[in-house]
Amino acid sequence: MKKINILYVVIPCYNEEEVLNETTKRLKEKMNNLISKKIISQESKVMYVNDGSKDKTWELIEKIHKNEELFTGICLSRNRGHQNALLAGLMTAKKYADVVISMDADLQDDINAIDDMLESYQNGNEIVYGVRSSRKKDTWFKKTTAEGFYKFMKFMGVDIVFNHADYRLASKRVLDELENYKEVNLFLRGIFPLIGFKSDVVYYERNERFAGKSKYPLKKMLNFAWDGITSFSIKPIRFVLGLGLLMFIISILVLIYCIVIKCIGKAVAGWTFIVCSVWLVSAIQMLAIGIIGEYIGKIYNETKSRPKFIISKNLNEGK
Question: What pTM was estimated for this model as a whole?
């Protein structure tokens, strides 16, 4: 007889009061439907993670929890960012669940894909990635920058699933292994492929955001991409090494050229060449120092081993 698993849906929330009631309404219908079909256990829940919201998100989560048995929540002591909030939810949910699905609160992730994810899990897959089937609804700029992000990450050596954000299913066994990854600079999209285990992909059509503003504007996306690259790839440092070797070869050639010109008596004072050379070399040195400094900064943060999140309240335990 097939086991009926306990499912927890983990949803990080930062200033989501505009969308939370609608998210709750739709997920309640979906969860009850799955429970009635005996696809998931009656002990299954939706867990909201309040990431230090400045609006009434936490008050709303407490109210939903009070009125709806299907819903629970945890509150972080302060804002720690999407990845840390998501990790807090995953690490908390795995104490109660057999399988956990993470998704965003804005209803852009198609909740109907949950059925396909659970089916794939029943077929033996321990990680199931939710992947956008297309970007027809995106603007040209959003589509170009987003797809460029994934392609660039691949080019830089980061193992990442194309067009996959953080909509995924993970078994308890996978989450137990995730707990062993201690890095402070979190990039979960890169960590999950490293864990291994049998995995699958479920494609879905991404919806428009129901309400509120995107929490990932261009500046945050660029910072996110840079964190991912420097946390999972040493290609930038190798690029600096290659650039240094190239500049060394060029300097040898320039030196030979200057000696030859001097020997044949055609030496001319060339201030333009000197000035351009100085500026070019200085710029490359500053770039190299900056990239290396970024890695040293990450090493510094890792050695401190500060907690990635602190949970101030857990509604599952009445605290």
Answer: 0.72
